[in-house]
Design a protein that fits this description.
two-stranded antiparallel sheet; flat; about 15% helix; alpha+beta
């Protein structure tokens, strides 16, 4: 599934609390992979340097 894109054009007082984690991961990484293995969630973030 995919998380909805955040609407950042709203004033700070009108922004909902929370929900910026996925936004920040998308902004600062090049690739995000998710898998479930042995009843554990594994998220791999890749950043090219």
């Amino acid at each position: 599934t995919q998380a909805p894109k955040r609407e950042l054009d709203l004033p700070i007082d009108d922004q909902p609390v929370g929900g910026l984690g996925i936004f920040l991961m998308r902004q600062y990484t090049h690739n995000i992979e998710y898998r479930r293995e042995n009843e554990k969630n594994i998220v791999t973030l890749t950043k090219k340097i």
